[in-house]
Write a structure and sequence with these properties.
The protein is an all-alpha fold and 407 residues long. It is built from 17 helices and no strands. Helix 8 (163-182) packs antiparallel against helix 9. The two termini are 20 Å apart.
């Protein structure tokens, strides 16, 4: 009844539908997800103008995000000096609107709107999970898609290897929904579901995203309550047993984990392993670019241009020309310099501190989920996608939004 009252107008029904299909839009492609975001933002603007209610104007977070936007614009205009950078920086404003659209609509009707959205996302996430298992055991997903890279899972993304990032972005939100609504009655099933999600993330074959998923999920279950420690440790043990069996009986995982990671680390140590890896080559290239552009970097989206220059690229670099450094810290340093790096890292640290303060005060699992996602995103050394791409940015700002939504 509460949900039906909340969706009584056509506009609210459209908004509800757009929120529901946003994760699907991400899987289909950036053009679709960006269109959905623009529609949500447009309806949000219409709603607040109609009600003459502009709550975000008195919210400190609006001005924090606005400062980030101005920094990106200044970098694009004064440093990058190319149209793609300016378009990307100018378009960042849509994420500011999206954050406050999330906050506004998710707080409607005492949170019933939010619960209905999260329930829909939970169903979508489980469909993707089933599809990942199907592709792992059959070689192609339910729709017949298969990855061009042997052993890697693409699921509904087809020939794009983005499902690992999607899984990283929505796993805790899905667990939060189940925890909030069903944990008291179905505690055991919650931990079984967690185990299934962890195994699914492992099967995808993306090492960096899996590491992040594992860390945030384990931290989540130990912080969310101080009960059922035996079940928690049992889930971890069962997961490692399944992982070991999988690695032992699968040549792809044996190569990816044993030959490409464990054996080189044993032989050369972690430092040399990172330096000699393909990501280490990218890090070295980004470091060279930063050292010659320490203050403001080479500009947003200019890393791909700078990486082609002979003074940075050498035989030591792996296919030196690349779109981004594959690590968020090196991306900030090389493209925004020391000034931009300090601004972004300050934003991350402040958000994480506020997140933990709010979680320990209100015990809201969604706030914990958002905070842990921010920490995992900012982890050093672990490879990551570009922070400034539409796909990665959408997932990031969706998760960030839950830091601001009131319980």
């Amino acid at each position: 009844k509460q949900i039906s009252n909340n969706l009584k107008t056509i506009q609210n029904k459209i908004v509800f539908l757009l929120f529901v299909i946003l994760p699907i839009g991400l899987i289909v492609g950036s053009a679709v997800s960006n269109s959905i975001i623009l529609l949500i933002n447009l309806l949000f603007i219409i709603e607040i103008l109609k009600k003459k209610n502009l709550p975000f104007l008195i919210d400190r977070w609006f001005y924090i995000l606005l400062l980030l936007w101005f920094c990106l614009l200044a970098n694009s205009i004064l440093i990058a000096n190319n149209s793609e950078s300016l378009i990307r920086s100018f378009g960042f404003f849509r994420f500011i609107l999206l954050v406050f659209a999330f906050k506004y609509f998710m707080e409607q009707d005492k949170g019933s709107f939010k619960n209905a959205i999260m329930g829909s996302w939970f169903i979508i996430f489980n469909i993707v999970t089933i599809d990942i298992f199907f592709e792992f055991f059959n070689g192609s997903n339910i729709l017949g898609f298969s990855s061009e890279f042997n052993g890697r899972i693409a699921s509904f993304t087809g020939d794009e290897l983005k499902i690992g990032n999607y899984y990283f972005g929505f796993i805790l939100l899905s667990l939060c929904f189940f925890y909030k609504n069903f944990y008291k009655k179905y505690q055991l099933f919650f931990y079984i579901l967690l185990l299934i999600f962890l195994v699914s993330s492992f099967f995808i074959g993306e090492r960096s995203n899996f590491i992040k998923v594992f860390l945030i999920c384990i931290t989540f279950i130990f912080l969310i309550n101080n009960q059922n420690y035996l079940k928690k440790f049992l889930i971890i043990v069962l997961f490692f047993i399944i992982s070991i069996v999988t690695i032992s009986n699968n040549e792809f995982f044996k190569g990816r984990i044993l030959k490409e990671v464990i054996e080189p680390i044993k032989q050369d140590g972690i430092s040399k392993f990172i330096d000699n890896s393909k990501y280490g080559k990218h890090y070295l290239l980004a470091k060279k670019i930063y050292l010659e552009n320490k203050i403001f970097g080479v500009g947003i989206k200019n890393y791909r241009i700078a990486s082609r220059l002979p003074k940075y690229n050498s035989n030591e670099n792996l296919d030196g020309s690349t779109t981004h450094p594959h690590q968020i810290h090196y991306e900030f340093l090389s493209e925004t310099g020391t000034v931009g790096y300090i601004i972004f890292i300050t934003f991350f640290l402040y958000s994480i501190i506020i997140g933990f303060i709010n979680f320990f005060k209100n015990n809201n699992p969604y706030v914990l989920s958002s905070t842990l996602f921010l920490i995992a995103t900012a982890l050093p050394f672990i490879p990551s996608g570009s922070f400034f791409t539409s796909y990665g940015a959408t997932i990031f700002w969706i998760n960030f939004s839950f830091l601001l939504i009131k319980k």
